[in-house]
Amino acid sequence: MKLFSYLLVACAGLGLFACNTENDPVIENGDGPTKSVSLKLNGISGSLNTKAVEPGTAVAGKIVLKDLKIVFYDKTAANGPIYRIEEFDGTSTSPTDVANWTALTGTAGYIFHDLDPKVNAVLVVGNWKNEGKTFTWTNVSSIKSSVLLAANENKAVSDFATPTPVTSTKNYVTLWGQDEDISPTFTDPVHPNATTYSAAVNIKPLVSRFEIGNIQCTDLNTPGSIYSSFDLKGIGLIDMSLENTITQSEVPGVSSPRLVINTNIIESGTPGAGQYLFGSPTNAISWAYNSITPVTISAATTIYNPEGTKKFVYNFFPDPTGFPNIKLVLDNVMLKTGPESSFDYVVTANFKDSPTGSTVVPSAGKIYTIDLAFKEENIGPWDPDLFKCVIVNVTVADWVIVPLYPEFK
């Protein structure tokens, strides 16, 4: 998978490095000469072949990189004690901040001077600062065990486009990566007695992404069919995780806490303890549901996308046991014989990479585009165990990071 690379590399001979010596280490108890580390971010390039965007989204499938926190620590000590933390704000208009951000995300690179000699590892966390995200920065263990909510990975942020910024939807997702194998490289031109080190950090999202569209009932109102029409009313996810941690995402095969449809998500009524009403705009799973102003579908050739060309987008924590499933809510499902059917739902069962391919397991940092085409036989009751479900084919793309570079009047 093509990930975005954040490289901490030695860049001797370049006179364009930005540097910072203002932040003192958290711990100053090391022996020996100080270290100097050059930080250079590369690989921010490429594009997606998808035009899938949620209603209101201006940029498809791109992550807006707004802020970075870089943590220097000792990997050999218990819990990873932190010796320095540096913050960078890609939205600041301060000339100094803009210069530092440009150096950090550009080709010049960035040198961190006077690090404690006990530093032997680097952790990078991106898009950590806003939208309700909470990290504990006591040590590396506490950072990695900080609980992140799926709801906060689905917030709208500005893309800071010029000349007219627009609000891009759900692209402020948490990014992280680390390198625990830094090595000596060159002499710091500013502090020639200090040893510089290099490292390579691949940062990636904790989430995967659904982009869902082309909703179609391929045999509706055709010869031999049983339904004449129905209204589209809503769409949402079930069987998804509400929270995750970096630690949890590091261990292959470890599942995030998942919701189970028949015990946790209910169709109607008052939710009990640990239950959520599907389609409610105010509960902990509201980020995973979109209501649809009723659209009547009466032909097999009709394909629905929100606003004609856009998609429904959900960022979710990937789980090794499978994808979240998609539930489509219908209304006024009319039989050709006249009465209204009591079946109002279409629910996915699993996802494949082609009509005859293998079942797909989600991976962080991937965009899964889905054409939600189903047949009349897939229209059923609330509980999918009582009826047939849809097996959906998915197309996969990688995410792209877009760094911010503010302009001034």
Automatic annotation (TrEMBL):
PROSITE patterns: PROKAR_LIPOPROTEIN (PS51257)
Protein's name according to its UniProt entry: Major fimbrial subunit protein N-terminal domain-containing protein
